[in-house]
Design a protein that fits this description.
The complex is a heterodimer of chains A (about 350) and B (about 375).
Chain A lengths: L6 H17 L2 H8 L4 H12 L18 H13 L6 H15 L4 H5 L4 E4 L6 E2 L6 E6 L2 E6 L6 E2 L9 E3 L9 E4 L1 H39 L1 E2 L2 E2 L4 H29 L5 H27 L10 H12 L5 H13 L13
Parallel strand pairs in A: 1-3
Antiparallel strand pairs in A: 2-6, 3-4, 4-7, 5-6, 8-9
Chain B lengths: L6 H17 L11 H16 L18 H13 L8 H14 L2 H12 L5 E3 L16 E5 L2 E11 L7 E7 L10 E7 L5 E6 L8 E12 L3 E2 L5 H7 L1 H8 L3 H18 L8 H27 L8 H23 L17 H11 L7 H12 L6
Parallel strand pairs in B: 1-4
Antiparallel strand pairs in B: 2-3, 3-7, 4-5, 5-8, 6-7
Helix pairs in contact in B: 1-3, 3-8, 4-5, 7-10, 8-9, 8-10, 9-10, 10-11, 10-12
Classes of the chains: A alpha+beta (about 350), B alpha+beta (about 375).
Chain lengths: ~350, ~375
C-alpha cells in the first residue's frame, strides 16, 4: 500500500510549478481577465514545450502515456496559478478521447494546439476562441467543431479570463468523428477525467486563495494587531485549510481509480468533484470575508482566483450533481456498492 | 500509487475476518459505560486478548502482534465492519500506552502493558479539572515530594469510565515555583489507593461511566511516575498528536457507520419527508471516504518517516464533525422515532442512532476541543500570530 505521489511525479510537478510561476503570475491572469491573452498564450506554449499536452496520449501519437495520477498534480498547479487556458479540456478530455476514436487528430493538438469540450448538451464551452477544435458529445456521437468561435454563441462569463459559449444545437454532419456504443463509453470516461482534472484545479485555486489570505492576515493590522491573531479569523482559515486538505486525497484517489479502471471509479470521481467544488466555494467565501472590503474589489487579485473557482465548480458537474449521481448508485441500486474504499 | 495489500497483509485480514465472524456477539452488548455493560465488555476484551487481537500494533512481548500501520488500519476496518463492541480499554491502549512506549521504563512497560492488553487492569484518563479544561496548563491538583514517592491532593474530572476503572493517568503540579507547562509531573494513580474517592457522573446519554476523582493525601510511588518529574507536560504532549491524528478514530469506524446509514436509507428512505436528505447522506458518505483517503496518505507518509505534525489537529476537527454529520443524517431519516432511546419498544435499532449521536457530540469536545484544534491549525500550519 502506497498512497502518495512518487519522486518522479513530484519532480515533474515542481518543473511545471516553475514554468507557471514564471509564465503565469497574477498579472498574466489579470491581463487575460481584461482581454489580453498574449502572455496566456505564451504560457500555453511553454506547457506544450514541456510535453504536458500529450501527458495522457499514447506513445504512438508522440504522447507521454502517463496517467491521471500524474496529471492531477499538474492540474493542481494550473489551478494554483489560475492558468487562463483549457488545460484540463485539452489534456484530460480531448487528447485521450481523440487518441481512442480518431488518433490522427492528436498530433497537432499536443504540438501546441488547444481543444475545448462540451460532452453533454447542457455543457458550456470554455475558451472557444483560444481553441483549434471543440469536441461535442451528443448521445452516442462525437463531433469535432473546427474554429469553434465561429460556430458557438458567446456568453459573458463571470470570470472574464474564462470566456464561455453555448455550443451549436445541431452539429454539422461533416463534423462527426465517430458514433456508436463505444463512443458513449468513451464520452463517459472523458467526462469523468474532466471532472477529476477540474477537481484538481479547484484544489489548487483554493490553496492559492488560502495562501494569499493567510499572508494578508499576518500583515493587515486592526485594533493594533494583525487580524490573523483574532480567533474568528483563525477559525475561518483553519476551516478552509481542513476542507482543502481532505478534498486533495479524494482527487488522488479518483485519479487512481480511473487509471486502474476500478469498477466503482465513478463514486470516487463524484466524491472528488463534490468535495473539491465545495472546498473551493467555501474557501472563496471565507477568504473574501477574512480580507474584508479589499477583497471585494477587482483591483485586488483575490477575485481572479475566486471567479475561476465559481466557473470550475460548475464544470463537469457541480457538487449537487455529483452527489445526486452518487446517490443513485449508493441509495437506489439493488445492493450496497460492494467494497468501495476498503483496503482489499 | 498502489492500494493493493501484500500477501501477509491479506493473510492477516482473512484470518481476522474469519475470527470476527465466529466470535463477535450476535446481539450488541449493553453499553460499556454502565456497570453491567462494562463487565460484558471486559469479557469481550479478554476474548480479544486470547486471540492476540486486543492490541495488534504492540510488540509480541506485551501481547500484540507487532502489526504495522496498514495492518492496524485493516484491523480497525474489519473490526467495525463486523459490528464488534466498543473498546472499554480504549483510553489505556490509545492514550497511556503510546506514552509508556516512548517514556516508560522497562519495569513499567512489563508491569503495565500486558495487564492492559488483557484488560486485567483498566485505565481512565484524568486530564481535566473543574477549572482546567481547554486551558489544561492551569491545573492545580498537586503532587508533593515525600519519601519514596509523591503525595497527591486535588480533583480530576470527566474521567471516561473512571467509575469502573482501576487506575488513572494525568498531570499534577509538582513544583509550585514553576508556572503553566513547567513543573508538572505525569503520574499513574491507583484508584484503589487510600485517599481516592471516585464519584460517578451521569453523561449526556444517561450512562454513569463518567467520573470525578478526588485525591486526599494519596501516596503514589516513584515507580508510577512516567518520564522525568516536572517534565510531565512534554511527556504527555509527545503522543497527543497520535490521539488527534491517527490512533483515536480510525476511518474504519466511519466507513462502517456510513454503510449502516445507507442500509437505513434503503429500509426507510421512502418515509423521509425531505428529498434533500439524500444529498446529506451522500455528503456524509463522501466525507467518510475522504477521511479514509486522507488516512491512507498519512499512513504512507508515516511509513516514510514523516510526522503528521500540527495537521493532526485538522484531522481531529474533520472526523469529529463527520461523525456528527453521519448521525444527523440518520436521525433525519428516522423522523419522530429518532427521539426514542434504548429500550423503547418501537425504537429503530434499539435507539442506536440517537445513542451514537449523543456520543458523536462528545467528539468536538474531547481530545482538545475543536476550537483549540482550529487555533493549532491556524498558528502552527498557517503561521498566523498567536495574538
Amino acid at each position: 500500500m502506497h498512497f502518495d505521489f512518487d519522486d518522479d511525479q513530484r519532480a515533474f510537478r515542481d518543473a511545471i510549478r516553475g514554468i507557471l510561476a514564471a509564465e503565469c503570475p497574477p498579472e498574466v491572469v489579470r491581463a487575460a481577465y481584461e482581454g489580453d491573452r498574449t502572455r496566456a498564450d505564451r504560457a500555453w506554449r511553454a506547457l506544450a514545450d514541456a510535453g504536458t499536452l500529450g501527458l495522457l496520449a499514447p506513445e504512438s501519437t508522440d504522447g507521454l502515456a502517463l496517467g491521471m495520477v500524474d496529471a492531477v498534480m499538474l492540474f493542481e498547479e494550473a489551478g494554483r496559478s489560475a492558468l487562463p487556458a483549457p488545460f484540463v479540456d485539452t489534456v484530460a478530455v480531448a487528447v485521450p478521447l481523440l487518441a481512442e476514436l480518431d488518433a490522427a487528430r492528436v498530433a497537432p493538438i499536443i504540438a501546441g494546439g488547444a481543444a475545448c469540450a462540451a460532452l453533454d448538451a447542457d455543457a458550456l464551452l470554455a475558451y472557444p476562441a483560444a481553441c483549434d477544435v471543440a469536441l461535442l458529445g451528443r448521445g452516442d456521437a462525437l463531433y469535432a467543431v473546427p474554429h469553434p468561435a465561429e460556430h458557438c454563441a458567446p456568453q459573458t462569463s463571470v470570470d472574464r479570463a474564462t470566456p464561455l459559449a453555448v455550443p451549436p444545437d445541431d452539429p454539422d454532419a461533416a463534423w462527426l468523428v465517430a458514433q456508436g456504443p463505444h463512443v458513449s463509453d468513451a464520452l463517459d470516461a472523458a467526462f469523468d477525467r474532466g471532472a477529476v482534472g477540474t477537481a484538481a484545479v479547484l484544489v489548487g485555486l483554493a490553496q492559492r486563495m488560502l495562501d494569499m489570505t493567510a499572508e494578508y492576515a499576518k500583515v493587515r493590522t486592526q485594533f493594533g494587531r494583525p487580524i490573523g491573531g483574532f480567533q474568528s479569523v483563525k477559525h475561518m482559515l483553519a476551516d478552509a485549510y481542513t476542507a482543502i486538505a481532505f478534498a486533495r486525497p479524494c482527487v488522488a484517489r479518483a485519479a487512481l481509480a480511473i487509471d486502474d479502471d476500478e469498477p466503482d471509479a465513478i463514486l470516487h470521481v463524484s466524491t472528488a468533484k463534490a468535495l473539491a467544488s465545495d472546498a473551493a466555494d467555501r474557501t472563496a467565501k471565507l477568504c473574501l470575508q477574512a480580507h474584508g472590503a479589499i477583497g471585494y474589489t477587482t483591483e485586488y487579485d483575490l477575485h481572479l482566483y475566486m471567479k475561476r473557482a465559481w466557473v470550475d465548480a460548475r464544470r463537469y458537474g457541480d457538487a449537487a450533481w455529483h452527489r445526486a449521481r452518487a446517490a443513485e448508485l449508493l441509495l437506489d441500486g439493488d445492493a450496497l456498492p460492494a467494497r468501495t474504499d476498503r483496503l482489499a | 500509487m498502489d492500494l493493493t495489500l501484500s500477501d501477509s497483509e491479506r493473510a492477516f485480514r482473512d484470518e481476522l475476518r474469519d475470527w470476527l465472524a465466529e466470535h463477535v456477539p450476535h446481539t450488541p452488548l449493553p453499553s460499556g459505560d454502565t456497570r453491567e455493560g462494562f463487565a460484558a465488555h471486559l469479557q469481550w476484551e479478554r476474548t480479544l486478548a486470547d486471540a492476540r487481537y486486543s492490541v495488534v500494533s504492540w510488540p509480541e512481548e506485551y501481547g500484540g502482534r507487532g502489526a504495522g500501520l496498514v495492518e492496524w488500519l485493516i484491523f480497525e476496518e474489519e473490526y467495525w465492519r463486523a459490528g464488534a463492541p466498543n473498546r472499554v480499554t480504549q483510553n489505556g491502549i490509545f492514550l497511556l500506552a503510546p506514552t509508556l512506549f516512548e517514556y516508560g521504563t522497562d519495569e513499567q512497560k512489563h508491569r503495565i502493558l500486558p495487564a492492559m492488553a488483557r484488560a486485567e487492569y483498566l485505565w481512565a484518563q484524568a486530564w481535566s479539572e473543574p477549572n482546567a479544561g481547554s486551558d489544561l496548563a492551569s491545573l492545580t491538583s498537586r503532587a508533593e515530594r515525600v519519601d519514596g514517592g509523591w503525595k497527591v491532593n486535588g480533583q480530576k474530572t470527566w474521567c471516561t469510565r473512571g467509575a469502573f476503572c482501576d487506575g488513572v493517568f494525568g498531570l499534577f503540579r509538582s513544583d509550585p515555583e514553576q508556572a503553566r507547562h513547567r513543573g508538572l509531573t505525569y503520574l499513574m494513580v491507583d484508584l484503589h489507593a487510600d485517599g481516592v474517592t471516585v464519584r460517578p457522573v451521569e453523561r449526556l446519554d444517561g450512562d454513569e461511566g463518567f467520573a470525578e476523582v478526588f485525591f486526599e493525601d494519596v501516596f503514589v510511588p516513584d515507580r508510577d511516575v512516567i518520564g522525568e518529574p516536572h517534565r510531565g507536560w512534554y511527556v504527555a504532549m509527545a503522543t497527543a498528536s497520535s490521539e488527534r491524528g491517527l490512533s483515536l478514530r480510525s476511518p474504519g469506524r466511519f466507513i462502517a457507520t456510513a454503510d449502516r446509514l445507507m442500509a437505513l436509507y434503503r429500509e426507510r428512505g421512502h418515509l423521509a419527508a425531505d428529498p434533500g436528505v439524500r444529498a446529506r447522506i451522500v455528503d456524509a458518505w463522501m466525507r467518510a471516504q475522504a477521511y479514509n483517503a486522507f488516512t491512507w496518505q498519512t499512513v504512507t507518509r508515516m511509513r516514510a518517516g514523516h510526522d503528521l505534525g500540527a495537521a493532526a489537529s485538522a484531522n481531529k476537527v474533520f472526523w469529529s464533525e463527520l461523525d456528527v454529520a453521519l448521525h444527523d443524517a440518520a436521525l433525519e431519516l428516522l423522523g419522530p422515532l429518532g427521539a426514542l432511546d434504548e429500550g423503547a419498544p418501537d425504537a429503530v435499532d434499539d435507539g442506536a442512532w440517537m445513542r451514537g449521536f449523543e456520543f458523536a457530540l462528545a467528539g468536538p469536545i474531547y481530545a482538545g476541543t475543536n476550537q483549540i484544534q482550529r487555533n493549532v491549525v491556524a498558528e502552527r500550519v498557517l503561521g498566523l500570530p498567536r495574538k
